[in-house]
């Protein structure tokens, strides 16, 4: 019997990071199985990509709930339970989640953000990084809390910010880091290696890895 954690990915668009998670999970030794992809947007491009892998998909259109955010989330929650989902990964899911959903999936819900949290929460992270003149920028995978772009950090990856960078070139460099660290983060969570202790994630990184720009390496 497989001990792989049944995982759902939530998307709203093309699901760039979704592709990285699915690719990692094709390895049968990977501790998470991508069992479901749910979109809140009918016709999201990511749904077409999933079909190639034979992964089950579902669409729960938030617009059908007339501003009832919790009603939408209860329908989403029911879909996850019906498919025996154990972990949930957000991949470009453009909905702010209410405490109902966050609490229901506490410790089992992860997100990726294109910045080195707690810096640059919210949108336009690459533009803001350039405006502030930071020399390192990157991405963060974290457990989701009730606050936007908050929650215990699982893994981070950094890239240099070049004098010649635009938001587009910097964003492309960060996206490469995102595709590397999100599968690693899901692996840490699904295997039980990433544990929340005192509001922080302990993941057992080695002190010998401190030269890396991805931590834990």
TrEMBL record:
CDD domains: FMT_core_GART
UniProt catalytic activity: N(1)-(5-phospho-beta-D-ribosyl)glycinamide + (6R)-10-formyltetrahydrofolate = N(2)-formyl-N(1)-(5-phospho-beta-D-ribosyl)glycinamide + (6S)-5,6,7,8-tetrahydrofolate + H(+)
Binding-site positions, N(1)-(5-phospho-beta-D-ribosyl)glycinamide: 15-17
Entry-linked PROSITE patterns: GART
Site annotation Raises pKa of active site His: residues: 149
EC number: 2.1.2.2
Catalytic-site annotation from UniProt: 113 (proton donor)
Record keywords, A-Z: Purine biosynthesis, Transferase
Classification via HAMAP family: PurN
UniProt-listed PANTHER family: PHOSPHORIBOSYLGLYCINAMIDE FORMYLTRANSFERASE (PTHR43369:SF2)
Family listed: Belongs to the GART family.
Record's protein name: Phosphoribosylglycinamide formyltransferase
Organism: Roseibium hamelinense
Organism ancestry: Bacteria, Pseudomonadati, Pseudomonadota, Alphaproteobacteria, Hyphomicrobiales
